[in-house]
Amino acid sequence: MKQTTQEKPGLQNDAPDADGRFADFGGRFVPEILMPAIARLEEGVKRVLPSDDFVREFQRELRSWAGRPTALSSAPELGRRWGAEVWLKREDLAHTGAHKINNAIGQALLARRLDAKRVVAETGAGQHGVATAAACARLGLPCTVYMGSVDIRRQAPNVARMKMFGAEVVAVDSGDATLRAAIDEAMRDWVSNPVDTYYLLGSVVGPHPYPYLVRELQSVIGREARQQLLEISGALPDIAVACVGGGSNAIGLFHEFIAEESVRLVGVEAGGTGSQPGEHAASLSRGRPGVLHGCYSFLLQDADGQVLASHSISAGLDYPGVGPEHSMRRNSGRVEYITVTDQEALHALGECCRGEGILPALESAHALAGAKRLAKENPGAKILVCLSGRGDKDLDTLMQLGDGECLQ
Ligand SMILES: *Cc1c(COP(=O)(O)O)cnc(C)c1O
User: Which residues make Cβ contacts (< 8 Å) with residue 338, sequence separation at least 6?
Assistant: First the structure.
């Protein structure tokens, strides 16, 4: 079997530099008052993450509680329809229904080792809030989740799940009363209790060391997928595809393949309903670099640098920023980024349901729609898709659309 990337010497740009930069991107654009908390976190990450003790504990929780390794499924009907060989990495089978649990339990274990007395988190659609609330319940850590009041109304079942796990859900009415405002509020909480509080961020975004930390925890996706694919089929994929919101499931899948030049890596952004501002969430395809939530990266902004509203039918992709490592990979050309529309995602979702008996999350349906396009352009290619989560949470949205939308 081939070496893993970790063993490969001379891998460029694998870790961010001392300032937390991935080439031009990343860094720590935070108020001075937050620096001690961030410095403490960075020290903790450096010390704890590589320790054998932590690695063992993390692996044990992933296996015995979070349901890893998740399956790798062949998708013969999608393959037949699209004219390619399609493989699905089944993060929908992970505990709480998506890849987010890998990061949540990993950081909760880190928080406990750093002697945190409580955890705060932000959530948009509620998926990260649910994963965090579950991980904190598992480890006996009190948990407060900040959530925009608009999102609280839209995502009632996830609010209920968080409460069942004993989390306190705090409504945020400021700003846009959605994810962006919730992140601001969680950071404010962290600043006011920096010693006892651990801020558990949900994607490869935010100030250094979060983009690095979350990548390291999510890279289990690609490590497993690579090993499974080699065992079952004897070869690496030609193309690996994942959807990109903040970018954690995509980085988690891609990381293991970055050094494999034969593997094309493709990130799929939410093209929404059109290419005008406010109609999509395609930060890498249609944005330009700027600072959001403590990090310099591609961003949807107007001519004056004001952050623009984003749109996607999938709440988990509806974020105007993106992780800095993706910005670096975009500019270096190692990863390609494409967009698919709401409509294309819905069609791919329907095909996956009826063809494979799997209801994917709307986010993951974007990766499937991207894979479909790539299959048509590359007949016979072996395509590995990160099916980042299950779609049960999206049933309300899907039912409101009526029958026609997902059927083709
Ligand atoms: C949150 C979420 C995403 C988007 O987040 P990333 O950090 O880009 O992975 C994608 N898929 C599912 C199922 C999600 O819940």
Answer: 266, 267, 268, 269, 285, 370, 373
Task: Report pLDDT digits (tens) over 104-163.
Answer: 999 999 999 999 999 999 999 899 999 999 999 999 999 999 999 988 988 899 999 999
Same fold flag, 21-65+100-215 and 72-97+219-407: yes
CA diameter of the chain:
56
CATH code of 21-65+100-215, in short, is: 3.40.50.1100
Q: Return d(Cα 263, Cα 223) in angstroms, integer.
A: 14
- pLDDT tens digits, residue range 271-314? 999 999 999 999 999 999 999 999 999 999 999 999 999 999 99
Tokens of 309: 């509203």
**What's the predicted TM-score (pTM) here?**
0.95
Pocket of ligand 1, beta carbon within 6 A:
98, 100, 127, 203, 243-250, 316-317, 361, 363-364, 388-389
Active site residue 89: no
Domain coordinates in residue numbering, the chain: 21-65+100-215, 72-97+219-407
**Which overall architecture, per CATH, does domain 72-97+219-407 show?**
3-Layer(aba) Sandwich (3.40)
